[in-house]
C-alpha cells in the first residue's frame, strides 16, 4: 500500500482551485493555519478539523511580519518534508505552502490592526506582532474562504484577536479554539520547546503548575494580587526570568482583573534561558 500523501498547494491560484473543486463536490472545508515545525498540538487541530468538515487544508508559512527585529525569524525551525509526512499520517487533504512573495507581493502596503485586545499582555512587549498576525490570518482566510478555521488556545490572546477581527470585518468563517495539548508533565507543546536545554526542559513545566495554582486561588473571587505575587516568586525560583507577565484577565476582553467574577484566564509569558514560553489556563 502506498504511503499516504497530501496535495501540495504552492500559491493562491492552486489553493482556490482546490477549494473550488471540493465545494463543487459538496464538501465542507476546514483551515488550520500554522508556521510549520508541527507537533501534536497542530495535529489536534487537524483532527478537530476532520471531525467538523469533510476536507482539511493546513497552511505552512513562517510569517515575517509577526517577528520583531530581535526575534527568532531566521532560526525558527523549518522542516517542510517532515511536516508534510505528519500531515499525511494525520489525514489532512492538502498543505498550502506559499512563499513570502506569494503572500506579500512587491508594493504590499496594507496592515490589519485590532485595537484594544492588542494593547495588553504580549502587545506592548512585541510591538507590531499582532498586526502581523491579523494581516496574515485575514489573508489566509480570504484566500481559502473555509467554513471553519482552527487555532490552539495556547496562543489565547492571538485567538481572541482573530475572533475580533473576523467579527469586525464580516469574514464568513467560523473560528474555533482547540484546547492546548500538553506534554506528560503539563508543559504546553510548542515549536520553540526544542530550543530548551535538558535542564531547562525539566524546569519548564513549572509555568503550567503556577498557572493552575493561581487559577485555583482566584476562582472563588479572592483577590488576585497575592496569588500572582506567589506565582512570580515560584517562577523566579525555578529559573524563569525575565517574567514578562503573570496576569488574571477577562476571557473575552483580556482586561486585567483584580478579582474573578466571570469567565477569565490566567496567562503568563517568561523566558527560561534564551527561550520565551507562554501559556494560559481557565480561571
UniProtKB/TrEMBL annotation:
Sorted UniProt keywords: ATP-binding, Cytoplasm, Ligase, Nucleotide-binding, Pantothenate biosynthesis
GO cellular component: cytosol
Subcellular location: Cytoplasm
SUPFAM superfamilies reported for this sequence: Nucleotidylyl transferase
GO molecular function: ATP binding; pantoate-beta-alanine ligase activity
List of catalytic residues: 42 (proton donor)
Swiss-Prot/TrEMBL GO biological process terms: pantothenate biosynthetic process
Signal peptide region: none
Residue positions binding ATP: 35-42, 152-155, 181, 189-192
EC number annotated for this UniProt entry: 6.3.2.1
Catalysed reactions, as listed in the record: (R)-pantoate + beta-alanine + ATP = (R)-pantothenate + AMP + diphosphate + H(+)
Gene3D superfamilies registered for this protein in UniProt: HUPs, Pantoate-beta-alanine ligase, C-terminal domain
Domain of life according to the entry: Bacteria
Binding site for (R)-pantoate: 66, 158
Main location as per UniProt: cytoplasm
UniProt xrefs under PANTHER family: CYTIDYLATE KINASE/PANTOATE-BETA-ALANINE LIGASE (PTHR21299), PANTOATE--BETA-ALANINE LIGASE (PTHR21299:SF1)
Stated role: Catalyzes the condensation of pantoate with beta-alanine in an ATP-dependent reaction via a pantoyl-adenylate intermediate.
HAMAP family linked to this entry: PanC
Miscellaneous comment: The reaction proceeds by a bi uni uni bi ping pong mechanism.
Protein name, per record: Pantothenate synthetase
Protein species of origin: Methylobacterium oryzihabitans
Amino acid at each position: 500500500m502506498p504511503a499516504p500523501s497530501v496535495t501540495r498547494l504552492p500559491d493562491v491560484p492552486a489553493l482556490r482551485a482546490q477549494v473550488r473543486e471540493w465545494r463543487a463536490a459538496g464538501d465542507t472545508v476546514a483551515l488550520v493555519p500554522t508556521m510549520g515545525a508541527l507537533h501534536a498540538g497542530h495535529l489536534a487541530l487537524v483532527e478537530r478539523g476532520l471531525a467538523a468538515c469533510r476536507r482539511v487544508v493546513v497552511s505552512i508559512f513562517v510569517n515575517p511580519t509577526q517577528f520583531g527585529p530581535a526575534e527568532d525569524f531566521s532560526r525558527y525551525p523549518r522542516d517542510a518534508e517532515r511536516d508534510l509526512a505528519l500531515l499525511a499520517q494525520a489525514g489532512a487533504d492538502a498543505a498550502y505552502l506559499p512563499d513570502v512573495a506569494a503572500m506579500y507581493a512587491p508594493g504590499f502596503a496594507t496592515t490589519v490592526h485590532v485595537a484594544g485586545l492588542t494593547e495588553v499582555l504580549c502587545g506592548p512587549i512585541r510591538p507590531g506582532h499582532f498586526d502581523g498576525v491579523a494581516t496574515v490570518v485575514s489573508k489566509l482566510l480570504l484566500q481559502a474562504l473555509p467554513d471553519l478555521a482552527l487555532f490552539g488556545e495556547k496562543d489565547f490572546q492571538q485567538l481572541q484577536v482573530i475572533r475580533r477581527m473576523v467579527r469586525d470585518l464580516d469574514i464568513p468563517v467560523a473560528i474555533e479554539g482547540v484546547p492546548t495539548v500538553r506534554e506528560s508533565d503539563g508543559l504546553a507543546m510548542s515549536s520553540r520547546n526544542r530550543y530548551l536545554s535538558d535542564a531547562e526542559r525539566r524546569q519548564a513545566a513549572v509555568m503550567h503548575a503556577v498557572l493552575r495554582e493561581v487559577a485555583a486561588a482566584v476562582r472563588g473571587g479572592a483577590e488576585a494580587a497575592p496569588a500572582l505575587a506567589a506565582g512570580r516568586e515560584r517562577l523566579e525560583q525555578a529559573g524563569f526570568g525575565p517574567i514578562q507577565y503573570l496576569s488574571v484577565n477577562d476571557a473575552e476582553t483580556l482586561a486585567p482583573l483584580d478579582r474573578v467574577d466571570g469567565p477569565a484566564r490566567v496567562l503568563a509569558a517568561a523566558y527560561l534561558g534564551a527561550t520565551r514560553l507562554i501559556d494560559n489556563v481557565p480561571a
